[in-house]
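Structure (tokenized):
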């Protein structure tokens, strides 16, 4: 006990090599005492935060000390720590740079809730971002962000967003379902080698009023009869398309009867 009290006292006053050695001390009490040391600058705090075994209580205490969080590198290191308390992380996200938020959202070890919050922070900033940053996010940002950029329909961004490795079918479908989805977004998806082969994307394109008629007609033989029957119900597709879908259903029915015969 006397040794621990001595180490706590040293942690409050140590400098240089002695302070650096205490950054690796196993005791939570000694670590907390380090936060009271005036010699604890940003580089030393970042060295400390590189430890993956830091107690959650210590990280929470550090997150409450605004004076120690003035340097951006400390904020980032604390936000990225795998044991950082949820509320601490949520507070820090507002101050993180855009690409750090993107990196955080793509980290495999981060809780889903925190990833989603980081993505929401990026989405909130999208309208004010310059084109260059949008291009970077479209190319290698989180799939949800790439989907939002896809829906915006910028010609330079469309191919990058569609080729984003984190973009999923659900992101593409959400973009197609938007009330203001533009013709160039629909056309870019129609022409894309990967997404134009997805059955659910094809189904969404058939439903979309901006899809070229030739594309819709090319997709019809690949749509199931049950889905075609749903699509011809009133209010789902434009009236001028309904006759083509009804004709396709009839063609399938005749083909089925002929096969049976």
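Design, position by position:
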């Amino acid at each position: 006990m006397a040794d621990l009290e001595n180490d706590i006292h040293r942690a409050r006053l140590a400098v240089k090599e002695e302070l650096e050695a205490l950054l690796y001390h196993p005791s939570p009490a000694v670590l907390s005492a380090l936060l009271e040391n005036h010699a604890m600058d940003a580089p030393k705090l970042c060295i400390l935060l590189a430890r993956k075994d830091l107690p959650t209580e210590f990280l929470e205490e550090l997150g409450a000390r605004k004076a120690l969080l003035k340097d951006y590198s400390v904020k980032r290191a604390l936000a990225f720590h795998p044991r950082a308390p949820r509320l601490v992380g949520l507070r820090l996200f507002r101050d993180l740079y855009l690409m750090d938020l993107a990196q955080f959202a793509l980290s495999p070890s981060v809780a889903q809730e925190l990833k989603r919050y980081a993505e929401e922070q990026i989405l909130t900033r999208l309208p004010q971002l310059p084109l260059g940053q949008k291009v970077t996010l479209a190319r290698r940002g989180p799939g949800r962000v790439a989907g939002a950029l896809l829906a915006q329909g910028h010609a330079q961004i469309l191919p990058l967003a569609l080729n984003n490795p984190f973009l999923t079918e659900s992101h593409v479908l959400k973009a197609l379902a938007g009330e203001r989805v533009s013709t160039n977004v629909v056309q870019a998806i129609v022409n894309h080698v990967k997404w134009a082969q997805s059955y659910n994307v094809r189904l969404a394109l058939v439903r979309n009023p901006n899809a070229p008629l030739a594309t819709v007609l090319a997709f019809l033989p690949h749509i199931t009869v049950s889905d075609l029957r749903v699509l011809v119900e009133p209010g789902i597709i434009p009236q001028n398309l309904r006759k083509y879908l009804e004709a396709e259903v009839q063609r399938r029915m005749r083909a089925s009867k002929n096969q049976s015969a």
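Reviewer-requested clarification: The chain has a mean pLDDT of 93. The longest helix spans residues 239-260.
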